[in-house]
Specification:
about 250 residues; alpha/beta; two-stranded parallel ribbon; 9 helices
Length: about 250
Amino acid sequence: MGALEGRVAVVTGGATGIGRAISTRLAADGASVVVAGLDKAEVDEAVVALGPPAAGFVGDLAQPGAAEDLHATANDAFGAVDVLVNNAGGGVILPTLEHTEETLQATINNNLWTTLRCCLAFLPAMRRRGYGRIVNIGAESVRNGLTDHAIYNAAKGGVHALARGLAREFATDGITVNVVAPSYVRTDALDAALAAGTAPARLRKVLDDAVAWIPMNRPAEVDEVAAAVAYLAREDSRFITGQVLGVNGGSSMQ
């Protein structure tokens, strides 16, 4: 019997990359998983790959009302949601003064607004039930000030701060709120872009700088991030809240 048997988990950005690994791990641990994403084909493929019980949701969670629709979809499919993983994100990594209004908005929307809106949509029902696990995906770059990440860090730093505030506010409601903060993570999409030579030259410097910060001298793998999320999603992590768990190969140590 898996550690999440009988639990219902929602993973935003759950169809690709880190989110796909998280969805797969939570399902393997016994959870019924709702995969949320922007691209219907990717979401449908992920749901098929996970197999039953799994469900999908397509929508832009940065927009008003979408998170509430996701909550309703999860409830209709499986009943009450026990675990919310706020993984949806992604930003435009540029030197600060090269950002435009469009890239600024996209970075804040994709990372902070998606997380904030989902927390607001899912917390009331968790509080009524007296149980919930919220895991936000943050970023190691918030701690180390990685090259060209200032705007991205503004968004992810908000994700970290939100978790701490919610953790204290809902500490007596059976709800824990934590952050998993990965360093540079290898994903299939990034590997493919680097192999094909289609990634911007400056991205290579950013990634080289990221690895240089890591004592283990390598990026994280997606399943290593998923393992940390799976632990914080479990019932027996009940006394851990308001924490930022670095999956970073030692690039920052506490």
